[in-house]
Write a structure and sequence with these properties.
The complex is a heterodimer of chains A (256) and B (335).
Chain A: E1 5-9, E2 15-19, H1 23-55, H2 61-88, H3 94-99, E3 101-105, H4 113-121, H5 123-127, H6 131-138, H7 145-150, E4 152-156, H8 190-200, H9 207-224, H10 238-253
Helix pairs in contact in A: 1-2, 2-4, 8-10, 9-10
Chain B: H1 3-23, H2 34-57, H3 62-78, H4 86-103, H5 105-128, H6 133-136, H7 139-146, H8 152-157, H9 159-179, H10 186-209, H11 212-245, H12 252-270, H13 273-283, H14 291-311, H15 317-325
Helix pairs in contact in B: 1-2, 1-3, 2-3, 4-12, 4-14, 5-10, 5-11, 9-11, 9-13, 10-11, 11-12, 11-13, 11-14
The chains are: A mainly alpha (256), B mainly alpha (335).
Chain lengths: 256, 335
């Protein structure tokens, strides 16, 4: 499956692509957050109740404000948990962090307080009748209503390409196979293999120049391999010889 | 340049950028010294340049994916929305919120209009069909009202809890009015109409019962703020709905996103006022103050609220013209 990519053009006019998170991983992150959120709210509620019973009721405005803060926490605490954590950690709640997800704005930048509040208060809509799930299913990049309102996308931070690849330049080969076994190949080692590889991976050489280099190389290789003057390898086209030799040597040395 | 030469030559600087990303805490580069920050920015720009080269010369190679992944991790560290600051709260209430309310005047009119429409319809329904009053207004409410006050003593006893409940409920209602705007504003409109209808039917019913003064003393003290805030939240919801219906030259999604930011400013900014309204509702409304005094509380809070919203944050014409002359670029700010 092709990843769902959000393409963004940076200030340097370079296009970068964020891999959008799918619905399953987002649901998993949501579950983790829900558990943490429930635990925090439960502890806060028990603590507040204990405090309340210890202090006793005064019936005044101060008590009303305290109770208001408490009941707001219970009703809206869920939404503010997400909003505050996303705003203060550049879009990564603990659940998202655990799943390697992150919220970014559609321009690729980190969300601020405004986006975090919008996308999480809109959970009121997204939770209703599972609207969020429904919308995310049909939206590119699995955006829910809150994402559409806030202009955000949840992206996957951990991708397969997280490390500098151990690159080898691609080898340009025209020979269909490695051909008949070449005599004297046992005189060659990793050094010759590297030289062959460097030659074969060099793009953009003019054809006649490439043929001349191949010829010079093959003459030296014949000497090293102690090939008799009558050997059939000597009448192969030099470029074909080098490609076949490279393939056979690779197989012999277990190199690519 | 050959691919392996490219990688060999550049990977040191990529690794250094990776190290910088790893040092970021909570999505910020706060802990870095000025020199390191400058270096980080330079490494980021170099990597962006490398990605451009790699995308042109080695489009299908892993190194291109790697550079892309590196930049997607570095980009949000450098480009971000404004972070929350306490000092901005003052400016928000002194300048930004009143300006936002005035800028949204069309939606405020619509919101008030819908509410008034509901109220007038409710009033007319009761006046024209007196036989339906029992269905339109719950009889217990009328009984309670005709006896003067609804159990004032019990209300007073539970005033703190009542205040908490009312405030929490009203904030929830105003947030719902805001976000349900995404259904092209219809739920918001229904909410405004039904709230107006309730006020209208009740008002007409008590008018027929001849107990107007007692009724309005129960509504007005806190209602001035409470209804205003609900109307503002309703206006915000309508704004979101309108952005979907008439996106103008923008894509609908972009129009929605843009409107949501402005609407949130309105609704969330106004919601804390509901705390004041809720406190009045549970401490002033059931108190033993004279009816006139209670009505005065409502009038004073209403006048204060709207003079703040209509007058605060205005600047002279010259300053407005200066602001208008500077083209605004919608580019995210670099941290």
């Amino acid at each position: 499956m092709l990843p769902d990519v959000l393409k963004v053009r940076t200030a340097d006019n370079v296009q970068i692509g964020y891999v959008a998170a799918g619905i399953p991983s987002r649901l998993m992150a949501f579950l983790v957050d829900l558990l943490i959120n429930a635990a925090v709210l439960f502890v806060a509620a028990v603590g507040a109740a204990a405090l309340y019973s210890a202090l006793g009721s005064s019936g005044g405005v101060a008590e009303a404000v305290a109770l208001t803060v408490f009941s707001l926490m219970l009703v809206l605490g869920h939404f503010f948990y997400f909003a505050i954590l996303e705003a203060t950690s550049a879009g990564r709640t603990p659940g998202k962090r655990a799943l390697g997800l992150r919220v970014v704005r559609v321009d690729g930048s980190a969300p601020g307080l405004g986006e975090s509040l919008v996308r999480n208060i809109a959970r009121l809509v997204d939770y209703t009748l599972g609207i969020g799930l429904f919308v995310a299913f049909f939206q590119p990049q699995s955006r829910r209503v809150g994402d559409l309102l806030a202009g955000t996308v949840v992206i996957r931070e951990r991708t397969a390409a997280a490390h500098v690849p151990a690159v080898m330049a691609p080898v340009l080969l025209r020979a269909p196979d490695s051909g008949p076994p070449i005599d004297g190949i046992e005189h060659l080692g990793a050094h010759e293999h590297g030289v062959l590889r460097a030659f074969l991976s060099r793009p953009g050489l003019p054809p006649e120049q490439r043929a001349r280099i191949a010829h010079d190389m093959s003459v030296k290789l014949f000497e090293r391999m102690h090939l008799p003057p009558s050997a059939p390898e000597r009448i192969w086209p030099p470029e074909l010889f080098i490609e076949r030799l490279y393939l056979q040597l690779s197989a012999r040395l277990g190199l690519s | 340049m050959r691919l392996d030469e490219f990688v060999a030559r550049r990977q040191q600087s990529w690794r250094e950028l990776e190290e910088g990303i790893r040092r970021a805490r909570r999505g910020r580069l706060r802990g870095m010294s000025a020199q390191d920050l400058e270096r980080f920015g330079m490494l980021y720009r170099r990597a962006a340049g490398d990605l451009a080269i790699a995308a042109r010369d080695f489009p299908d190679q892993p190194v291109t994916d790697y550079l892309n992944s590196l930049l997607t991790r570095a980009h949000p560290l450098l480009f971000r929305g404004p972070s929350p600051q306490l000092s901005r709260v003052v400016r928000f209430y002194a300048v930004d919120l009143p300006r936002a309310v005035r800028a949204a005047h069309v939606y405020i009119y619509a919101s008030v209009g819908l509410f008034a429409l509901g109220a007038v319809a409710g009033w007319l329904a009761v006046i024209l069909r007196p036989d339906l009053v029992a269905t339109l207004v719950p009889p217990q409410v009328l009984d309670g009202l005709s006896q003067g006050h609804i159990g004032n003593e019990t209300l007073k006893q539970f005033a703190p809890a009542l205040a908490a409940f009312i405030i929490q409920n009203n904030i929830l209602v105003s947030l719902i009015a805001l976000v349900s705007g995404v259904a092209i504003g219809l739920p918001t409109a229904v909410l405004l109409l039904t709230n107006g209808w309730m006020l209208g039917t009740l008002g007409a019913a008590v008018h027929q019962g001849g107990i107007d003064a007692g009724f309005w003393a129960l509504i007005v003290p806190h209602g001035a703020i409470e209804i205003s805030v609900i109307l503002i939240a309703g206006a915000a919801g309508l704004m979101i709905g309108d952005s979907l219906l008439r996106p103008g030259l923008l894509r609908r999604v972009d129009s929605l996103t843009r409107a949501a930011q402005r609407a949130l400013l309105l609704a969330l900014g106004a919601a804390p006022l509901l705390v004041v309204a809720g406190l009045i509702e549970s401490f002033v409304t059931p108190s033993d103050l004279a009816v006139g005094a209670k009505l005065a509380v409502g009038a004073v809070t209403g006048v204060l609220l709207w003079s703040w919203l209509l007058l605060a944050g205005r600047t002279g014409r010259a300053a407005t013209a200066r602001r208008a002359a500077v083209p605004s670029l919608d580019v995210p700010t670099a941290a």
